């Protein structure tokens, strides 16, 4: 998020000074790191949690369309970056990988068919295929077909237009370009506090972790792109708008396979259905990953729990984030979220063998010795005040900004990095109302569909997809 916002602002106002502060010694080591997330270019092509069932038995696809529109902005920004030298070889951060939705059982097959029927005619989902034939299933997904009961009712929706994204590489490249453009990038610098001066500027208290010195940096605008740690920094800033917000941390694990004899049998990102009571971020999926040119398989996620707000955070993160203004929303969520709590307890109790059994729902002949357990990035779900005493647990992303636009931050987890451009355009509109109209022509050059519905303009979408596919090396033979 920070790398994206910094790159947009540097393109719009190259004369503005910019400082980026990172507590760790390299960029993208938290949630953006390639092994800390599934690397799915979240365009809602395969994620079933974006297309919930409706009370009348139908399927609501509105969120899927919104997320896809947002991801198109990211594709355009990245293509512009490649065309203009901001980004390097696109295969270092994005690669074509089919996106697949997978279900079992007659009821779920019926749901997936309705989802397919609702999306297949939409311009942004052109090319979506329906597969409800065992032989075709086996041809496309041999690892998932081997050892599967031929009487089991399975179906998939399939598209060749999906991607795998290494957000760690993307972040590093964006920040490398920002540094070459004069931005001051400081690693191993931890923000300890924020104070607003009488003239409206911010004084940021920073600790240099190498020599222990404390320094102060003055800024007219501050963006808090600290992942799960953003809520604590916005609390330290003392802005009114953060009151009532809290965070609920959820950790996770994946199991990974690097054995080429196994990875060669599966080339797709296959998303299933979340367990009853499980949060949307827990949707099981078997993913092809391309990291550093090497293909691997990733399965999960397996949910866990820790009070840390960051993978490299502290066990005091959650208790120190409790304030009088967010105590009631947190308590209310605790009372109403027993299903989630039960799910987390059961996940924590899972043995390694039980985790492999979950994998075998997707790949029946998977062998435990071919897979290794890795820890994923930390996610902090948003708890928001609802009414006078209530609270709601949200699984999306939320921009929080001061009313005067001098500070903003991003809370939440999903769809996260995939829609960073849409989120940061939102930040620009909220925090720079005096400049945004003057910036629009240049923003339209960077992201041509800015302010336009591609779903309502299929010809424009087709033209932009042709451009982004070519620039990002995604064009099909």
UniProtKB/TrEMBL annotation:
InterPro entries: FAD/NAD-bd_sf, MQO
Enzyme class, spelled out: oxidoreductase
Protein's pathway: Carbohydrate metabolism; tricarboxylic acid cycle; oxaloacetate from (S)-malate (quinone route): step 1/1
Cofactor: FAD
Keyword Glycosyltransferase: no
EC identifiers of the protein: 1.1.5.4
Catalytic reaction annotation: (S)-malate + a quinone = a quinol + oxaloacetate
GO biological process per UniProt: tricarboxylic acid cycle
Example of a GO MF term: (S)-2-hydroxyglutarate dehydrogenase activity
Similarity comment: Belongs to the MQO family.
HAMAP family given in the database record: MQO (MF_00212)
Protein name (record): Probable malate:quinone oxidoreductase
Gene: mqo
């Amino acid at each position: 998020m920070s790398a994206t916002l910094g790159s947009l602002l540097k393109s719009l106002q190259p004369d503005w000074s910019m400082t980026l502060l990172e507590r760790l010694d390299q960029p993208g080591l938290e949630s953006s790191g390639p092994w800390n997330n599934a690397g799915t270019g979240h365009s809602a092509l395969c994620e079933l949690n974006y297309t919930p069932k409706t009370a009348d038995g139908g399927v609501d696809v509105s969120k899927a369309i919104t997320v896809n529109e947002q991801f198109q902005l990211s594709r355009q920004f990245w293509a512009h970056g490649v065309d203009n030298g901001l980004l390097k070889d696109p295969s270092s951060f994005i690669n074509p990988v089919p996106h697949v939705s997978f279900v079992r059982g007659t009821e779920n097959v019926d749901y997936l068919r309705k989802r397919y029927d609702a999306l297949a005619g939409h311009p942004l989902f052109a090319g979506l295929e329906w597969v409800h034939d065992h032989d075709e299933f086996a041809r496309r997904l041999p690892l998932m077909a081997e050892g599967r009961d031929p009487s089991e009712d399975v179906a998939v929706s399939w598209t060749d237009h999906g991607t795998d994204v290494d957000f760690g590489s993307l972040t590093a490249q964006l920040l490398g370009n920002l540094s070459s453009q004069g931005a001051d990038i400081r690693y191993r610098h931890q923000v300890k506090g924020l104070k607003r001066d009488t003239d409206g500027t911010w004084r940021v208290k920073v600790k240099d972790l190498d020599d222990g010195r404390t320094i102060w940096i003055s800024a007219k605008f501050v963006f808090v792109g600290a992942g799960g740690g953003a809520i604590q920094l916005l609390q330290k800033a003392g802005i009114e708008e953060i009151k009532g917000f809290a965070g609920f941390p959820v950790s996770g694990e994946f199991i990974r396979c690097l054995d080429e004899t196994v990875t060669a049998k599966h080339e797709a990102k296959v998303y299933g259905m979340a367990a009853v009571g499980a949060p949307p971020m827990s949707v099981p999926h078997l993913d092809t990953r391309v990291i550093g040119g090497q293909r691997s398989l990733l399965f999960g996620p397996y949910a866990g729990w820790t009070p840390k707000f960051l993978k490299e955070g502290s066990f005091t993160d959650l208790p120190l984030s409790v304030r009088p203004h967010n105590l009631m929303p947190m308590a209310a969520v605790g009372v109403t979220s027993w299903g989630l709590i039960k799910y987390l307890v059961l996940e924590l109790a899972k043995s390694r063998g039980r985790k492999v059994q979950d994998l075998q729902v997707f790949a029946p002949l998977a062998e435990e010795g071919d897979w290794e357990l890795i820890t994923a990035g930390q996610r902090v779900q948003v708890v928001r005040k609802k009414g006078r005493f209530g609270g709601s647990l949200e699984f999306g992303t939320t921009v929080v900004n001061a009313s005067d636009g001098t500070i903003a931050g991003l809370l939440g987890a999903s769809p996260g990095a995939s829609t960073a451009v849409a989120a940061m355009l939102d930040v620009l509109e909220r925090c720079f109302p005096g400049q945004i109209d003057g910036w629009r022509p240049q923003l339209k050059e960077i992201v041509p569909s800015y302010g336009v519905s591609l779903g309502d303009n299929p010809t424009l979408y087709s033209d932009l997809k042709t451009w982004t596919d070519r620039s990002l090396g995604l064009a099909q033979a």
